[in-house]
Specification:
Beta-Lactamase, single chain, binds magnesium ion, about 45% helix, TIM Barrel, 8-stranded mixed β-sheet, Glucose Oxidase, domain 1, alpha/beta
Amino acid sequence: MDRIRLLCDISELNHLFRESVSLESFLHETVRMVTLHLKTEVCSIYLYDEDDSMLVMKATEGLNPDSVDHVKMKYGEGLTGLALKEMRPICVSRASKHPSYKLFVGTDEEQYDNFLAVPITRGPAKIGVLTLQRKKKKKFQEEDVLACRAVASQLANIIENAKFLMSMHEEHEPAEPVEQTWNIPAGLEFVRGKSAAEGFALGPARVIDKQKTFDALYQTRYDQIYSLEQFDQAIKTTENQLEDLQSQVEEKLTDAASLIFASHLLILKDKEFVGTMRRLIEEGENPPAAALKVARQFIDLFSRSANVYVREKVQDVEDLIVRMISNLVQEYEKLGDFKGKVVIARDLFPSDLLRMSSENVTGAVLVAGGVTSHIAILARSLQIPMVIANNYDLLHVPDETQVLLDADSGNVYVNPSDEVIASFQKRNADRVSMKDQIARMKPRTKTADGTRVRLLANINLLSDLSMAEQLKCEGIGLYRTEFPFIIRNDFPSEQEQYFAYRRLVLGMKDKPITFRTLDIGGDKVLSYYHDAQEQNPGMGMRSIRFSLQNRRIFSQQLRAMLRAGVDADMRIMFPMIASTDDFRQARMVLAEAMEDLDQEGIPYFPKPKVGIMVELPSVVHMIEELAAEVDFLSIGTNDFIQFMLGVDRTNETVAGFYIPHHPAVLRAIKLVIDAALKHDIEVSVCGDMAHQVEYIPLLLGLGIRTLSLEPSYLPRVQELIEKLDMSQAQQLAKQVLTVDTTEQVAKLLGIRQTMS
Ligand code: PEP
Ligand code: MG
């Protein structure tokens, strides 16, 4: 068991990666590490070149070192090629007798008859193969396969990053610097937006317009001449900073933190990148100018790529160069760090937010996006106050301007007066501390007249777990398993998922846990997978559709869940189910995953409750049949409202049309609840409506008895429910169902209409 742990420990590979000076040396270190830990004589890594469909040996420990770069095989050729073609590990004890065996003369491999090949893949992308060979006596075991799969999964990410770097050393003319001026628009003292993640933040602004920062550097005149030594020192400092950041993220967010800064470090280690800069400096160029010139070439090259994944690297180069030059001119504090800053951005990737969180950003304002978008959900998990304000002028606020965020109400104050600051600081000091909230929280929730309501937690990152536990949630109603997938640069392996899920199970002790299967797509794009831009990603290849199309990824995830929940009260929930067909297909994949585990003799939880999310209007019309088949229903109001009303949940400009209390939404919810009651299955709400106090009496009145919400909302929701009288709530629900305009519903619920 120890060796599996050791090998599956991501940090070991991360560490190796940091220590190495190039991809080649990293691969070499990796094969050395694997031979050592798995007590095998040979370990080699082959990389796949898609253009000519060839696998080429790139590193070996144990075989003739001259084989590197010379041993090549066609796709599907030999046992190694077969592993890649069939995308599965191949483990044989008498390799030379296997029909696919191919001997490469001169490698000295004929003496090793035990053979194991594990494909290195990232989702559907084929990257290479990791092979192990041993002499006769010691066969490879299942543990070796598992360990190699974990290693292969980590390798995939690093290799993919490195591959595009290798392909780009062409000469390009630097683009002409662009003249740009920024005016501070008037009337920005107070901007009303919407709260996306509650809290209060005060700090200097940092506008994320990467282009702007980069161009500003490009246009700066560097009067001081720097030396090559100063340049080298700046590179070293940058490397140290990035490594520190990586360690911090790993510590804070174990489930999501795989190599977030990998591409920065890789670019920094790239011989051409720093080498060309150094050459230019030796030829007499001032280091900042040399660095910018080379960075510009990379940026131009990446921005022209048809691949989103490569285009995203533009940001990484810009980030890196800003950091490097700031270190060189000793201005990093001024330019680079997010510590204590209020970030203002058009939009952010989840990985951006994670990076900022690791640098202790204090708050964020986005000028696009909706409050139920996933960047908002992530901000809540990371406890970064966030406001979404549909005002593009905010992007012109000069850096370092003092900004106050009242993210409870969604207001932004630019250059606030001393009085405004003082009054917010007082309000902040008066907040009930988390400690007090924990002390007040009761383990069971009841209405004033004694009706039991179960409060469960929504978990996005494992870091949410501790707050959920302390606030005495009764279990997990929704674990959004996709967040580790979104934030990382690659698909996590089954083993990595298993470790994350296992931590969740151990953290929740005997309480029920609802694992939702992968819900990517829409605004949860995987940069490493979603290559083609979809016109309508919210209605595109997302969620259960993606899982059913990518069976291998789906069944790996189900296996990881089943294994992790072996001794738990675990449930599995499928998102975005549109029909009974979808549900039956998904359940079949689950059954197959269980059969496979049985055959492999791996322990797992054999009887999980299996349910679906109600997020699509089609489900309402099939609810009788579905309720008869599933073990539970959970209403995902975020998507349900979006699809019932045809309003993009991520688009702030149409936010006024996104009306949870629309009579059609409420009547549909009622139909779902009634079907669940009739078939005696649990029905819960796990979308944002579950924490919105204005809707809770109505939901309970309609028959909901289980709510699942983000942990920080638990205290206020419990407090509200304890004051509620159930018969009054039922009366309210009855009345609401009789009216036919949103205005009438709003009046009955006592809420302000936001749309006219
Ligand atoms: C929902 O749609 O309400 C839901 C809970 O899922 P998500 O917000 O992750 O799409
Ligand atoms: Mg949803």
